[in-house]
Amino acid sequence: MEKWRELYPFQSRYHVLQGGVRMHYVDEGEGDDAVLMLHGNPTWGFMYREIVRYLAGRMRCVVPDHVGM
Length: 69
What we know:
By secondary structure, the chain is of the alpha+beta class. The chain has helices at about 5, 50-55, and strands at about 15, 20-30, 35, 60-65.
């Protein structure tokens, strides 16, 4: 296993945008409530890893990444 996967063990998902560009996102957890975590540039969803681990047992956590990040 790659070392960074230990820190970011979430399943990678992709949404295909117009023109065939793939946008990466993480969608973890379950529940009626959800939280959308948006990051700035030049960061990526990795910065929310501890929050996702903490909340995923109680709610859905969606973390999209900007294309290219």
